[in-house]
Amino acid sequence: MSFLFAAPAVLGLALLLAGPVLAHLHRRQIRERRAFGALLLLQRLQKRLQRRRLLSDRLLLALRVAALALLLLAAARPEVRWPEVSSSVGGTGRVLVLLDASLSMDQRKDGESAFNRARKDAATQLRNLPEGTRVAVITYGSSASLLTPELTEDHELAATLLEEVAPGAGGTDLRGALLLARTLLEGKPGEILVYTDESGPGVVEACAQDFERLLALGSTVLPRVVRPDVPGNVAVVSAAYGDGIEGGTVAVALANYGPDAREVPTSVFLPDGTRITSFVQVPGAGELPGAAETRFTVPRQAEGGVARVEVDDTDLPLDNTRWFHLPRVGASRVMVVDGDPGSSPTRSEVYFLERALAPWGTGGPVVDVVAPAGAGVLAEGAHRVAWLANVADPGPLGATLVDFVRRGGGLVVAMGENVSAERYNTALASLLPSPLRRPRDLVDLDGAGGPPLALPDPTVDLFRVFARAGREGFAEVHTRRLMTLEPYAESAEVATLLRTEDGVPALVERRIGNGRVLVWTGTLDLGWGNLPLQSVFAPLVQRVTALLGGDLGGNAATLEGTVGEDLLVPLPGGAAGAEVTGPDGRIVASIRTTEGVRFTPEVPGAYAIQVGAEPPFARAAVNTRLAESDVRPGTSILAAQAELAPERLTRHYALAPLALALGALALVAAGGLAMRALPESA
Amino acid sequence: MSGAGANPVGPWDPEVLERVRALHLHAREAVWGLQHGAHRSLRAGHEVEFLDYKPYDRGDSLRDLDWRVLGRTDRLVVRRYRAEQELAATIVLDASADLGSVPAKFEIAVRLAATLAFVVHLDGGPVGLTILAGEAHPPAPLPPRRGRGHLARLFLALAAVRPAGRAELGPALREVGARARSRSLVAVVSDFMEDPAAWGPELAALVRQRVDLRAFQVYDRDELELAGAEPVRLRSPETDEELPVDPVAARPAFLEVRDRWLAELDRALSTHRGLRTPVAAGSDLAPVLARFLAGVT
Fold first, then answer.
1. For A112-142, what is each residue's pLDDT tens digit?
2. Structural domains of chain B, with CATH
3. Is A36 in CB contact (< 8 Å) with chain B?
4. A-chain residues near B253 (CB < 8 A)
5. pLDDT digits (tens, 9 = 90+) for A340-373
6. Chain B positions in Cβ-Cβ contact with residue A52 (cut-off 8 Å)
7. How far is CA B122 from the centre of its chain?
8. Which of A91, A260, A315, B2 is deepest in the core (most CB within 10 A)?
9. Residue B147: phi, psi to the nearest 5?
10. Any chain A CB within 8 A of the CB of B101?
11. Do A36 and B244 touch (CB under 8 A)?
């Protein structure tokens, strides 16, 4: 509804409102005087009359001002306009029912969703249409679909089909539904009943062209708005694990789309079943949604995977949960295979590794140091990361290590004097990024210095913790000797993570299934360089351990998806026959393309992409569209059409006669009161 | 008594003499206008000596029936008496300026005072006159005396007085009470437009003298009903104070205030055994006189 003036210039005369005030100040003068012998009685009366006169004066002034204001208002010819269409349906002989099945239609009133009410109303409407009227039913959520076989005169069939529609959790494809409706009408006029909540930003605005085309055909889109009188909804708009070497926090942002402030219980559910609850106060929405942020501290040890945040909100339950990826948090069990017990700490890789992994002696990863002969316990699956430190002959461990990595384990291979390229290339051929060649002296081994490492790329997961500070510390790492590798090509599987300034690979990664292998071409003691003494050593070792130590499926790729939108999962080598498992454990329909596996999630939740019984090579956290959570009333469909065809859809009501009548009434009343007005003193 | 001015008008002023004649005329008309024999003597009945017998007529009081004669002769006769003590009357006239706000109001006040004096004179009693405020009248009160000459002087004073000044009823009544004879009659002719709380207590002196107090409240009907339709500034001639008023708007409240004031007036008078007789300006005095005479028993 809008309010406007046909002659707004008249309002400029509002200065005349000062007239009654001035007139009021210039009071009537009494000229007649008379001798009076009973003044004693008047004196007794005076006090009471003064009170009455005050009231009378104020009323008179108010009436005078009101009279003039109303007359001015009348002269400005005010009118109210609002969009309105006839409530009768069926006049064109073609009625299309469009049912909004988007997530926001899950808004509850007295426990019943807007979708349910809309569905029932629409079915009733269909059954009550005049015989011979051709009808069709279209539902639209993430996409629009036709329920009935084209236009039909079987109203009962249409109503029955409509009643069987299930609500969805997707977006609002009103535009697709209107396009479908226009196609069905084949250029003929029709009435399109849209059962919707009219919420969500930009939904109606995006359909302006479609409205225009339908109006041009003589059709009208008649909205049947179903939503609570005061829509409200609290939703989780984002959830993310705070990056850290060990442990961290989940940052959760909530939005309140209702007008009133709310306190909502909010819980984080970790993949291992741990639940952390907090009460969050969210302010009410104004022009912007009310926003609040909170953080949940994740235990020092937690399984990785897809976690979720839930708010307890009964207004719109479907968007109460938001899914997010949680890396493996906390201590991993680490095996260090010590191939060269040193005679002194500076010559002991284990010495440096232990101090880097557990600087205070307790806490952090559990480190098991074994001799090469004891590495067979890796097969028991207790360890997540294995470090081979200057092991002379990995041959006996070959099969165990290969199996360990294929199951998702992380292997770090560090060089040293004991390492023989030939034996490694034989035993670990399927694990190494590239066959080893030979050690290369970059400077004199007995001297000092050597080329420093180039600064690593901070966007790479391994070095993200150095993004804010500490990255420069890599330039302090000098290596005198490095093991060289056969030339290799960078690929999705093989990547060089660190190089010297001269470009010699220092840290090379190879992904194998769910596992990873890192080859450090230097030593973990001071034999070939100064890495263990540098500030970056401890965080680098811990970061490597944390990343590789994700659960045995935790190295899976992480994907984000939205309900109703296609999701493409790139396939690693050897992942033929991959399937997508939905949140309910059932296989979700997917298409294999050259780029990978493509599927469309219909419900929010955690999706796993895996081959057979193998651990998933990718996990997807699928969430609802944020726009659907915004239940604040958006642009009215009727108003949008009224702008396009005001003469058809706008009702006018002139307020001038009313203002004129009220002004005249006020004028008469003021006149009457003025006649009776009490003079100055009595 | 205050406010008594000098006498700018000579006793033989033709206008005054004309007023004296008029007063005589009005007084006699008023007295004779009463039904002959319908009024009683102003003198008290039990303060008299035996005169003679007369046959009983219907209407004679049974208290005057001589039971002894009835017992002896079987005849109904009543005893007749002659008054033994004369009843002195003092007439107090309020001649303040407010009485002159409406000429007819002052006129009826003067005429009433003259008539009362005439009635007392006819009854053979001494009569005096005290004028409060006003101008052109004898500065001192005229004490109660008998005789036509005294009555003439009294009429001359009444004819000459003009309304002026303030009456100050309280001190004036106290002074009258101090001078009044015991068991006399004091008739106050005034508009009583002063706060009863200011003069009511002064009536105690009159009560002590066992004075029969008659209050004649002179008023103008239009004034006490706040007549008029247009706003007007009303001015008190006594104080020159002015108050603007819209009669139509103020009338209901004014009438309430008036009735409360009259109730206060009656309360103040009745506390001291006084009787109030309202006298409207321009009205016939005969009923007033009749009520006056009937009130003396």
1. 899 999 999 999 999 988 888 899 999 999 8
2. 14-36+87-294 (3.40.50.410), 50-83 (no CATH)
3. yes
4. 45, 48-49
5. 887 777 788 888 988 888 776 655 667 888 888 8
6. 249
7. 16
8. A315
9. 105, 150
10. yes
11. no
